[in-house]
Each structure stands twice: as C-alpha cells, then as structure tokens.
UniProtKB/TrEMBL annotation:
Keywords: Signal
Keyword Ribonucleoprotein annotated: no
UniProt keyword Signal present: yes
Any one GO MF annotation of this record: hydrolase activity, hydrolyzing O-glycosyl compounds
Domain of life of the native organism: Eukaryota
A Pfam family this chain is assigned to: Glyco_hydro_16
Residue ranges annotated for the GH16 domain, each copy included: 59-310
Name of the featured protein: Concanavalin A-like lectin/glucanase domain-containing protein
GO biological process: one example: carbohydrate metabolic process
Organism per entry: Immersiella caudata
Residues spanning the signal sequence: 1-24
Amino acid sequence: MRLPTTASSLILLVSAGTPRAAAAGPPLTDHRNCGCYLTNGTESRYFSHHYFFDFRSQSQYAGVPTAIASADLSGSAPRTSKYFSNSEFANTWIVGNWDNSARQRKDATVRMHMSPNNIYIEANNDKGRKPETWLTLRTQRMENFQTAAELETMYFNKFVSVRMMARTIGAPGAISALFTYKHSNVLAEVQESDFEVRTRDPDNIVHYTNQPGVTTEGETDPLATTNATLPDGLKWTDWAVHRLDWTPERSTWFVNGRQVAQNAYQTPRDPSKVILNLWSDGGKWSGNMSVTDAAYLQIQWFEMVFNTTDVNFKPSSHAANDPLVCEAVCSIDETPNQGQPVMLWNNAAVRVVERRSFTGWIPVLVLGMFAWR
Ligand SMILES: *[C@@H]1O[C@H](CO)[C@@H](O)[C@H](O)[C@H]1NC(C)=O
Ligand SMILES: *[C@@H]1O[C@H](CO)[C@@H](O)[C@H](O)[C@H]1NC(C)=O
Ligand SMILES: *[C@@H]1O[C@H](CO)[C@@H](O)[C@H](O)[C@H]1NC(C)=O
Ligand SMILES: *[C@@H]1O[C@H](CO)[C@@H](O)[C@H](O)[C@H]1NC(C)=O
C-alpha cells in the first residue's frame, strides 16, 4: 500500500504524541478486541477462536504425586490440584482415564491405563531459573501395567494452528504426542495429524504423520510420515515451540517458527479433537519400558487458534468476539508477550499499519478516512 504524503506526515505527527509510537510491531491488545486471528507461515489462515494456557507461574499448584500402583484405581484418581478444576481448564479439556483393554492397538503387549494422577504442575527446581513451573504429563512402567497421561479438547475443531513450548525427557519406550484426532473403529478411516517423539529414537529425530501410517496388514505407508531431524541442532529434550497447522489442504509442522515438514496426503477432513498424550503399550511403535522407568512430556504453555462447527462449543473467555464478521484481525505470532494477541488491523474504526522510519518499525495509526485503496 501507499499513503498519500500529506496524510502520512499528518499521521506521523498524530502518532508521535501517543505512547505506541515508541513500540515496535503491531500493538498488544485484548482477545476481546479480536474478531479473528491470522497465522503466519506458508499456510497463513484466519481462525475464529483462541485458547492460551500458561503453566509457567503456577507455584501454588505445584506438586509431584507418586504414581498409583494399581491399574484399577488409576482411572478414578482425582485431579492432582485445583488448577485442573478451575473453569477455564475444566471447560476446555477432558482428562484421560481410559485403559487399553477396549482400545488396544493390535500389537500391544502391556496393559495401559490413562490416569488424571499423571498430569500435574511441577516446580522448576533449578533455583533462580525461569519458568517457575510447567505442566507435566507422566508415563511410568509399573509392576503389572503402564500408567499414562492424556488431555483431549472437549470440543471438535475444524482446522487449527496449535503450538506448545515443550520438551520430552525420560526413559526409552514411550511416545509423546500432539495431534488432531477423529476416531473411527475402522483403522483406514481414522483421521489424525501427528507430531510424535519416540523416547527410544535418536534425540534429534521426530515423526510427523497424517494417519493411518500403517495399513491393516501392518505395512508402513511411506507417504504418510516424515521422519524429520530437528533444526538448529535441537534435541527433543530441549525446550522448543512445536507447532502444527491443520488447514483444509494439508498439515504443516514447525519448530521454533521454522517449517520442518508438510504433508497434503491423508489430510484430516472432519471435525477433530486436539490431543496431548504420553504413553507406551509394549507394541512395535512405542517399544517397552522397563519396570519403574518413566518419561515426561513437559509443557510451559499451550496455545491454539481454531475454527469449530461443534454445536456444543461455548466460547470461553478466550474466544473471539464475532467470528462471522471479522473486522479486527489479530495475531498470536507477532506478539512480544506470548498468549496476548496483537492487533494487525481493524477495518471497523482504525487501521494499524507498520511503516519503516529512521528509528525502525513504528506502528502508525491510520484514520479510516485516509485508508488505502
Ligand atoms: C475459519 O472460519 C472463518 C469464518 O468462517 C473463515 O473465514 C476462515 O477461512 C476459516 N479458516 C479455515 C482455516 O478454514
Ligand atoms: C520413520 O521411522 C520409523 C521408525 O524408525 C520407521 O519405522 C519408518 O519406516 C520411517 N518412515 C519413513 C517414511 O522414513
Ligand atoms: C511467525 O512470526 C514469528 C514472529 O515474527 C516468527 O518468529 C516466526 O518465525 C514466524 N513463523 C513463520 C512460520 O513464518
Ligand atoms: C515388549 O515385551 C513383551 C514381553 O514382556 C514382548 O512380548 C514384546 O515383544 C516386547 N515388545 C517390543 C516392541 O520389544
């Protein structure tokens, strides 16, 4: 766009008098001011809703519960702190409590039980270091079974851009995963877009798959999976932002803002849950864990923008105002304050644009009447 000279100098004068003139990049705003969110990257899309869960300063809820030794008591275990019953969390997430007797993978050799007891806020014990806390999902091999952890969104989404600042640590034999999931009893009809870490892999290899990655005959489908090397010398034991964009045409995966894989094959089509889990069942994919060994998926923050067609969906405090008429376009990418959106532009009243100046990028408020085009 080009601004008429007179208008732009006028605007510079106007904006010089506002505190925003000193800020770099588009201005921070409140999610209530956002009509929709525009993501960046090769599959840049608009989304109507936003979730952000920040686990970094939750010291009052921190505590590591001992794993429950009985499979039968695992599913009914209480949530490990009040954090998980606060309305924002409890109205967004289903805490897994199922066992694999009913949902067993064909090659599983170990009974596995999801337990709310394996999901907790953990203090960072490296004193003086940030963050104070994170969310931990744990899986541990007990005497007679594998105890594991899962969080699943309550509502179905149709297209998402989901991110988490996370790492996976611990013993070989576990799978940690962030994925979209549409269940089917027929393997070939499962729709699922996955980011997975296998804790028995080399520490720089991760897996990106549009499932099913294996046929009913057990043959792997090479088109379904990208086995990627993490960029910039990263290991999956390092903290990094892992991102999955599920758009109508394809799935795209990023690490720390860099695209590492993309797949248009078997892209999920129907409304899906977003799931985080950490598990092991003694099958070919996860492998076995040795008794008493454990692994952990640790998450500092979780964020997603998404659309939904779910009739049960109740916009929470993290939902955008008016999904159908989007005049105020926000970004969760360009923000200096993770979780708080910035306003890219607002057609309704004021447009916010960035202009190169001698002092670097400064936002310039352009009155609607001077708008470009
Ligand atoms: C999300 O919904 C909005 C409003 O209906 C639409 O404009 C946008 O294209 C949708 N995004 C995707 C990725 O389908
Ligand atoms: C990816 O890695 C897995 C596990 O090592 C292997 O079984 C699979 O064949 C690989 N797939 C591709 C497409 O390289
Ligand atoms: C999105 O924007 C952020 C902030 O400018 C940047 O760090 C990141 O690399 C961008 N991601 C992509 C995929 O372009
Ligand atoms: C896991 O251990 C069981 C026996 O406890 C064995 O039958 C199975 O083959 C092992 N799985 C793998 C992938 O090694």
